[in-house]
Write a structure and sequence with these properties.
The protein is an alpha/beta fold and about 375 residues long. The protein has 14 helices and twelve strands. It has a single domain (about 5-75, about 125-370), classed as TIM Barrel (Alpha-Beta Barrel), CATH 3.20.20.210. The strands form three sheets. Strands 7-8-9-10-11-12 form a six-stranded parallel beta sheet, with helices on both faces. It has a four-stranded antiparallel beta sheet with strand order 2-3-4-5, covered by helices on one side. The protein has a two-stranded antiparallel ribbon with strand order 1-6. A hairpin with a 2-residue loop joins strand 3 (about 90-100) and strand 4 (about 100-110). Helix 8 (about 190-215) packs parallel to helix 10 (about 240-255) and helix 13 (about 325-335) runs parallel beside helix 14. It starts with a helix and ends with a helix.
Amino acid sequence: MTLRERILSVYAGQIPDVVPFMLDLSHWFYWKHHQPWDLSRSYTEPERDLIDYHRQVGAGFYLPNLAAFYGVQFPEHVQAHTEKRQRRGAAEIVWQIATPAGTIERARVWDEQTYAWAVSQWGIRTPGELRVFAEAMSARTYVPYWDRFRAWDEYIGDVGVTYVSAGYSAMGHLLHYWAGVEQTAYLAADHPAELAAAVRAVNDNNLRLIDLLCTSPAPIVIMGDNFSGDVQPPAFFARFSRDYYVAAIQRLHAAGKRVAVHIDGRLRGALAMIAATGADCGDAITPAPMGDLHAQACRQEAGPDFILSGGVSPDLWLPRTPLPAFDQAVLQWLETRHLSPRLIAAAGDQVPPGADERRIHRMRELVEEHGRY
C-alpha cells in the first residue's frame, strides 16, 4: 500500500498492511534550510520543496500549515488589516480589527532561537473589547479556493493526504490569538454571560465555514483549539465549545468527510472528551515523557474506535536525547496497534527545530519493521 492508502484506510476503519507513518516537518524544514515563514500571508501554491522532502525520506505528508483553501471576508463596517513592524530589532506582525464598537489589536514577534512567532501583545482585556471581537468575527463570510486544494493534493499524490483546516473555534481564537489563557479565565469568571454570548455568536459563524467545507473535495478536515486537558477541561469544554464541535462534526460526517481534532497538550480527560464529540481522530497526540499519559493509557482513555495520530514527543527528536529512548517511544506507540488498528505513527505535534535528521529516517525504518499487521 502507498502512504496515502494506509492513511485513508485507517480513517475508513480498515486495517492497512503497515501502521501509517506521517510527519509535520514544516517547522523543522524551515529551520533546517533557514527559510523565513510569514504568518501574515498564505501559500497559494503547493510547498513543493517541503513535499519533495517528505517523499525523499518516506514520511507521509498531511498538514499544509500555511495554505489557504478558502478566503475570509468582512463586511464594510468591519476593518481588518495586518501590518509588519520592528520591535527591538525583531520583525513583528500586527493584526487589527475595528468596528463601530471599537478596535482590538494583537501582535506576534519573531524569535530566532525558537524559530517561531511569540505572542507580544494580546488584543482583548475588557468586555468592550470582547464585544468588538464578537461583532467582527460573527460577520465573516467565506469563499472557496478548491483549485488550490486540488493543486496541493495532486502534487502530494501517493506520499500522503491533504488535511483542510477549519481553524479555531471561538474559544480557540480567544485562548491562542486574542486574549490568552489567563485573560480568558478572568472573563469566564467575571463576565460569564458576555463571554458565552460572544462565543456563541462566533461559533454560529464558524458553522458557515463548516458548511462550505462540506462542499470541498477534501476527504479529511482538521479542527481543534490546540486542546490540552488542563486548559480546556471537560466541564469548561462542555460549557463553551462542545455544542459547536458536535454540530460541526455531524455536518461534516453527513457530507462524507472525516474529522481530525488537534490535541497537542495534556491528554488526561481531553482524549475521551474529544472522542465523545464524534470526531474520528486525535491529531498531534503527545504521550510520555512530555505528555501525561503513556502510549497504552492513551488507547485506554480514547477507546478502540478513535484514531490516535502521534506518538513521539518533541524532546525525543533532539540530539541530546539518547537514541534508545527515541526507539523505545516509537516501539511502544506501535505496540498499541494490537489493542486497536486505529493508529497513525507521527510526531507529537511537529518535528521540532533542532531535531536530529537521522531520526526521521530511523522512525520510518522502525515503522516498516515493527508496524506490520
